[in-house]
Each structure stands twice: as structure tokens, then as C-alpha cells.
Amino acid sequence: MGGYGTDIDEGMPIMTGDDLVPPYAGAADHGVEDSLRDRTGAAGDLLDFVTSEHRKLVWLWDEMVTALDRADTEWLRLRLGGVVRETREYLAAERHVVVPALPETPASLRTAGTVLDALADFDELNPEIDEPRLRDLARQVLDDLHAQDDEVVPRIVDLDAAERWKLGEDMRQVMG
């Protein structure tokens, strides 16, 4: 008998209680780390992770502004939800991982909640393109990211290397 579900279930241990973590847990992380070049934001060090996420988000929001300049509302309508989701996901993870790790919360991280609130107002499934409001949001997000580059990144550099590595992995896990 070999239908769907039968072969998949064969050989899989039934786990209860404290055995909920299968023997292969964590192997994917090592595979990811081994397959990437050094100093990549996809694995490891919090500094690399944060700077790579900042570069990605700055690029995405610059693209939004460029599309606004071109009056390309169709492109904006298709991309806005994803850009908002990426930004919200990153800023929320940053609040959960980076803020508690720093001895003192920089002003740019204290104001990140305002950006999160502004992003929450956008409907990802049916974004209404209000050009002035979207330009203001893009400016707000870009200003926030640049301020974090100036204030947060130097404080991350000051953290112990082992702590930065652990926090980088935490960020990756929180963001999924």
C-alpha cells in the first residue's frame, strides 16, 4: 500500500512529552550556515543581519518612491502589500530581539512604534494608493532606517561577538 500519507508517516517517530524535538532538529540551520559565504545576513551575526535587512528595506522603499514618481499605480498596487509586510515583520522582530539586547534603547528604536502604527493602516489585500500619504510613509520609513543605521548599528558593534551571533540567529527565527 503506498498512498499519500502512508509512506510519509512510515518511519517517523511518534513523539510525546519532552521528546517533541526530532533528532534532525537544527540540522537545517547548519546546512544554511555551511552553504553561505562568510559575512552574509542570512545566517549568524546580528550586525550582518540588521545591515542586510536595512539595505533591502531601503531599496524596496526607494523603489516605492520611484514608482510614485512614475505614477505607476498598478506596480504600487501589486507591490505595496508585500513591502509593508516585509517592513512590519522586520521592525517587529527588531523590537523583540534588538531592543532588549541593548543597554540603552536608542531614540530611533523608541520611535519605531510610530512607523509600525503607520504601516498597520495599510490594507495588504487591497491597498489604496493615496500618493501623498504613501510618500509620507516612505519618507518616515527611510528616515527611521537611516537613523537606526546611525544609532543602532554602532551599539550592535559594541556587543560581544558570541552575543551578536546568538541574537542574529534569534532575529532569523523570529522573522521565520
Number of helices: 8
Strand percentage lies at: under 5%
Kindly name the structural category.
mainly alpha
* Structure summary, number of beta strands: 0
Quote the average pLDDT. Answer: 76
Helix and strand run: HHHHHHHH
Sheet having the most strands: none
Rg from C-alpha positions? 20 Å
Structural overview:
This protein has 176 residues and is an all-alpha fold. It has one domain (45-175). The protein has eight helices and no strands. It has helices spanning 6-9, 27-35, 46-69, 73-101, 107-110, 112-120, 131-157, 161-175.
Keywords:
69% helix; 176 residues; elongated; 8 helices; disordered N terminus
Brief sketch in words of this structure:
The chain is an all-alpha fold and 176 residues long.
Write the layout of secondary structure elements.
Elements: H1 6-9, H2 27-35, H3 46-69, H4 73-101, H5 107-110, H6 112-120, H7 131-157, H8 161-175
Helix pairs in contact: 3-4, 3-7, 3-8, 4-6, 4-8, 6-7
